[in-house]
Amino acid sequence: MSHPATPRVTRPRTVLAMSGETRAAILAPEALDRLARVADLDPRLLVTDFGADDPAQRTGLHQAEVLFTGWGCPPLDPAALSAMPRLRAVVHAAGSVKHHITQDVWDRGIAVSTAATANAFPVAEYTVAAILFANKNILESARVYRQARSRVNLLERFPGVGNYRRTVGIVGASRIGRRVVELLRPYDLRVLVHDPYLGEAEARVLGVERVGLDALAAESDVVTIHAPELPGTRHLFDTARLALMQDGATLVNTARGSLVDTDALVKELATGRLNAVLDHTEPEVLPAESPLYDLPNVLLTPHIAGSQGGELHRLADAAVDELERYAHGLPFAHAVDPRTLHQQA
Question: Where is the D-isomer specific 2-hydroxyacid dehydrogenase NAD-binding domain (predicted)?
C-alpha cells in the first residue's frame, strides 16, 4: 500500500529587507528567535538598499531563497532581482505589497505572501468602535455635558440616539470591510455594502445588502470607507455624494485620504450637517490651519487605526507562520494573486 509523501521540511535561507525602524518595531526578540528556528537567517544582516556596496549583503542576497520584508523594503526591480538568482518567495510582514513588488517579481514566478489580513484586524476594530460611538452621538453628548456641567435631558437633546436598527454603509468588501461586517454581526444593525466586485450570492453569504454607492450614501447613518486607492476611487466622496448623506450622518475614513474630497468635506462639516471620524486625510498630515483639527463634529486621529505598538507583533507572527508553511512545502495561506492585485490597496 502506498502512503502519501511526507512534505520535506527545510530551513530556507532567508534575508531581512526593511527599514531599521521597522525591524525594531515588528521583530521582538521572541519573533526573531522563532524566525531563526524556521529559517536559516543571519539576524545581523538587514537590507535597506539592494545596491549597497557590502560584501556580506551581496553574499546573503546571492544565497537567499526567501526575502522577509516589511515597511521600508526597497523595490524589487530587475537590478535588485539580479542579485538574488535563488529567490523563490517574498514574505511581507505588513499589508500592501505594491510599494516593493514589481512586475519583474511576477515574471520570475516568485511567490508572494502578505500579512494584510492580520493588519486588517485593528483597522476593523477601530472602525466598529467609531460606528458604535457615532450612533450614540458620543462627540456631541460629551460636548454638551462638558458645557452644562449638570444633568442633561437626554430624551430632549438626543431623541434619536442609539445603535438599534440603524443603517451602516460599508464601501468596499475588502479584507477590512469583510472583517467589519463580521464584527458587526452581534449588533442589531442593517448593513449595506457597495463593491463592484461583490456578487449578489456572495453578499447573501456575508449577510449584507448589496447596493449602489449613491443609495448607500443616502440611506446610511454611518458610512465607512474601505476601498483601495485607485484612479477610479479618487474623490469617491465628492460634493455631490456628500450632499446625498443624511443630516446627522457620520463619515468614517480609515482608507486613503484621496477617496474623500477634503475641501468638499470641510464645507459640509463646517455647517454641522455631518460628522466625521478621520484616520486618513489628504494630505496625510493636514496643515496646521486646517479646520478639521478644531471642528467639534470631527474626531481626527493620526493614522493610528492600523497595526501599532503591540499589534505589530501580530504581523510578525502571521509572517513567520507563512514562512513556516513554506518550509514545510505547503502553499501560503495568504498568497498575493497578481491577477487581483489591481483591486486591492
Answer: 129-305
